[in-house]
Write a structure and sequence with these properties.
This protein has 2 domains: 3-186 and 294-322, Rossmann fold; 208-287, Tyrosyl-Transfer RNA Synthetase. 55% of the residues lie in helices and 8% in strands. The protein has helices at residues 16-29, 41-48, 53-68, 86-95, 100-104, 107-115, 124-127, 129-138, 152-168, 208-216, 237-245, 248-260, 265-292, 294-322; strands at 3-9, 34-40, 77-80, 144-147, 177-180. The relative contact order is 0.14.
C-alpha cells in the first residue's frame, strides 16, 4: 500500500474545524493507505518555546482526540515526533543544502509573524519550520500528504528540497504528492474561520453546556435584528455549520425559515446544537474512557513510535551512506 504521512502540532486543544478538516479524512484514509500520523511537539516549540509546560498537556489532549475521532492504532501508526531523533538529524542535514530564500518565501512565514505579534518569532526554529516539516515527511518516504488546495504551496517546498537532495547525492526520497481533499471552511462563533487564535472555537473537549452556549451566542445575518425580520442564510455562519452537520431537509427548512422569518434564529440554532452534540457525544464518551485509562495512551504511542522509528532509521542509513557520513 502507498504510504500517507500527516501530523498535527501540539499547540492547543482541537476544535470542530480540525475534526471536519483533517481528522475525519484521516480516519477514512487509514483503510486505503499505510498511514503514519504524528503529534508534532517539536513544531509546537517554534512559536510556544516560552511555555513548554503547555506542550505536554496539548500532546495528551491531541492523542485522546485522535483516538476518540476514530483513528485505530491497529490500522495506522500513531507516534510522537520528539521520540524519533532521526527527524532532527535529517533536519540538520537538509539545512546544509536548503537556500535561505526558499524558507523566507513560504506563504505563512510573514503572515504568522504579523498574526502572532505578542511573541518573538525572530528565531531560526520559526524560519526553519518548513525544513523540519520536510524532514518529518520525507524520512518516511511517504507518497502522499493529505492537504487542501490552499496548502499545496506549503508542500511544494518539501518537494523542492527532496529534489535538491536527490540531485546532489542519490535518489533516496520520492517527491511527496498532495492528496487533495476538500476541507470545508468551518466558521467560528464570530463568523471568521474557526481558530484557537481568534478565540472563536468550539473545542472537542468542551462540555455539552459550553457547546450549547457558544452556538446560542453565534452571530447570524446582521439584518435580522427582530424576530419578524427576514434574513439571508448565506450571510449566517450558523447556516454554514448547518451545511456540515445538518441533514439536507434541515438545511432547507432553516434556510427557508430565515428567508421568510417563519422561524427565529434561536430555533435555527437549536437544530444545529442537536446535530453538533450528536457528533461530539461519542467523542466525549471515548475521551472519558481514555482519561480513566491513561496507560492505554502510553502503550499506543510507544508501539507506534517503535514502528515509525524503524522506518526512520532505515532511511537515515541510506542518507548517511549517500552523503558519505560515518565513513573513514
Amino acid at each position: 500500500m502507498d504510504r500517507v504521512l500527516s501530523g498535527m502540532q501540539a499547540s492547543g486543544k482541537l476544535h470542530l474545524g480540525n475534526l471536519v478538516g483533517a481528522l475525519r479524512n484521516w480516519v477514512r484514509l487509514q483503510d486505503q493507505y499505510e498511514c503514519f500520523y504524528f503529534i508534532a511537539d517539536w513544531h509546537a516549540l517554534t512559536t510556544g518555546y516560552a511555555k513548554p509546560e503547555d506542550i505536554k498537556q496539548s500532546t495528551q489532549d491531541l492523542l485522546m482526540n485522535f483516538l476518540a475521532a476514530g483513528l485505530d492504532p491497529d490500522r495506522c501508526t500513531i507516534f510522537l515526533q520528539s521520540k524519533i531523533l532521526e527527524h532532527a538529524e535529517l533536519h540538520l542535514l537538509l539545512s546544509m543544502i536548503t537556500p535561505l530564500g526558499w524558507l523566507e518565501r513560504v506563504p505563512t512565514y510573514k503572515e504568522k509573524i504579523h498574526e502572532l505579534q505578542d511573541r518573538d518569532l525572530s528565531t531560526y526554529g520559526f524560519l526553519g519550520y518548513p525544513l523540519l516539516q520536510t524532514a518529518d515527511i520525507i524520512i518516511y518516504r511517504a507518497k502522499y500528504v493529505p492537504v487542501g488546495v490552499d496548502q499545496v504551496p506549503h508542500l511544494e517546498i518539501s518537494r523542492e528540497i527532496a529534489r535538491r537532495f536527490n540531485y546532489f547525492y542519490k535518489e533516496v526520497f520520492p517527491e511527496p504528492e498532495a492528496l487533495l481533499t476538500e476541507f470545508p471552511k468551518v466558521p467560528g462563533t464570530d463568523g471568521r474561520k474557526m481558530s484557537k487564535s481568534y478565540e472563536n472555537a468550539i473545542y472537542l473537549s468542551d462540555t455539552p453546556e459550553t457547546v450549547e452556549q457558544k452556538i446560542k451566542t453565534m452571530m447570524t445575518d446582521p439584518a435580522r435584528k427582530r424576530r419578524t425580520d427576514i434574513g439571508d442564510p448565506d450571510l449566517s455562519p450558523v447556516h454554514q455549520l448547518h451545511k456540515i452537520f445538518s441533514s439536507k431537509e434541515e438545511q432547507e427548512y432553516t434556510a427557508h425559515g430565515c428567508r421568510t422569518a417563519s422561524i427565529g434564529c434561536l430555533d435555527c440554532k437549536k437544530i444545529l446544537i442537536k446535530n453538533v452534540l450528536a457528533v461530539l457525544e461519542p467523542i466525549w464518551a471515548k475521551r472519558k474512557e481514555l482519561v480513566d485509562n491513561p496507560d492505554i495512551l502510553h502503550e499506543i504511542v510507544n508501539k507506534g513510535t517503535e514502528k515509525a522509528k524503524k522506518v526512520a532509521q532505515e532511511t537515515m542509513e541510506l542518507v548517511r551512506d549517500v552523503m558519505g557520513l560515518g565513513k573513514f
